[in-house]
Amino acid sequence: PPRVFSGVQPTGNLHLGNYLGAIQKFVALQHQHECLYCVVDLHAITVAQDPNELTRTIREVAAAFIAAGVDPKKNIIFNQSQVSAHAELAWILGCTARIGWLNRMTQFKEKAGKDRENASVGLYTYPVLMAADILAYRATHVPVGEDQKQHLELARDIAQKFNNDFSASISAKGYGDAFFPQPEPLIQGAAARVMSLRDGSKKMSKSDPSDQSRINLTDDADAIASKVRKAKTDPEPLPSESAGLEGRPEAANLVGIYAALAGTEQDAVLKQFGGGQFSAFKNALVDVAVAKLGPIGAEMKRLVSDPASIDAILKDGAERAHAIAAPNIAAVKDIVGFVR
Ligand code: AQP
Questions:
Q1: 46 lines ligand 1 (CB under 6 A)
Q2: Any idea where the domains of the chain sit in the sequence?
Q3: ipTM score of the complex?
Q4: Which option is the CATH number for 211-302: 3.30.70.60, 3.40.50.150, 1.10.240.10, 1.20.1250.10?
Q5: 241 assigned to a ligand binding site
Q6: Is 206 a catalytic residue?
Q7: Which of the following is catalytic: 149, 161, 173, 206?
Q8: pTM surpassing 0.90?
Q9: Ligand 1 atom 12: the closest Cα is on which residue?
Q10: Which tens digit of pLDDT belongs to each residue from 261-303?
Q11: I want to staple 213 with a disulfide (CB 3.0 to 4.6 A). Which of 196, 271, 321, 324 is the partner?
């Protein structure tokens, strides 16, 4: 059966890119599939985190899922560290993955920077943990932003190599031809890659030192308006067709954001605003952004003011997640040949 898994790191400043690239899709998928949405706190500590701040942001990410419209009863919302299957499977899959594969991961190169010798081992093996997150549930569909495409491909390679390496044991022990499915990335839409408001060549990111570069989910209407109005653009008016956005990354980004927020296509946006002044388009973008994000931000603030309720949701989610993962981990141990 189809099963959806995705995760968001509790590393502060959830932004419009996280929302449009991932969380908004979580909401849409819950009507068709069984979905697990995870606050990936084990991933967060691959770079240094302040413990008190980490606790706060774990709850904040869970609140963002719920405030955006993910139903915690229908779906499983939980934090990764409460389900031991993730770390356990990551070890086993770390013995399947090859060093050469990890050496090609661009996110590690970007995040480790020049001082690679000083990056944590966890940052390097991050994509193996991500493969374990997905495969522990034998998930089939993974809604993520464009930036996670390479990690998803690695997860597919790891699943396939495990299936190949252990094919004899998998069939001898009655698990069929292949144990892990090939998880499919769901990366679509106008805003699979939301760019920084200050630089159309950089993705919008939690860790960008400039708060002006991103719209945070908790920004109020004034902050959203000011960031959109100050967003970098070029001096030309908007074109009336998509082809006219080529070589204009900042304009293309804002049009993509508008389309994703308004639930329409880029062409329709250009039909409406093409040829007009940029400022008129920006005003309309402020309106749609405030209409969409205002209620989410307000609900997030309300939810985090009651941490006990969020913790109860996370605990319930962890128990339900564990119930799905435990038999899969038992099977993997069986396949590998461990005595249980
Ligand atoms: N700019 C983006 N556009 C579209 N999708 C995005 N995502 C992140 N940035 C954009 C998607 O959001 C989900 C959660 O991301 P994450 O928290 O796991 O990690 P990240 O990709 O490292 O996010 P950030 O915000 O860019 O953090 P930093 O600054 O720490 O690198 C994922 O599905 C991701 O694709």
A1: no
A2: 3-192+307-336, 211-302
A3: 0.96
A4: 1.10.240.10
A5: no
A6: yes
A7: 206
A8: yes
A9: 18
A10: 999 999 999 999 999 888 999 999 999 999 999 999 999 999 9
A11: 196
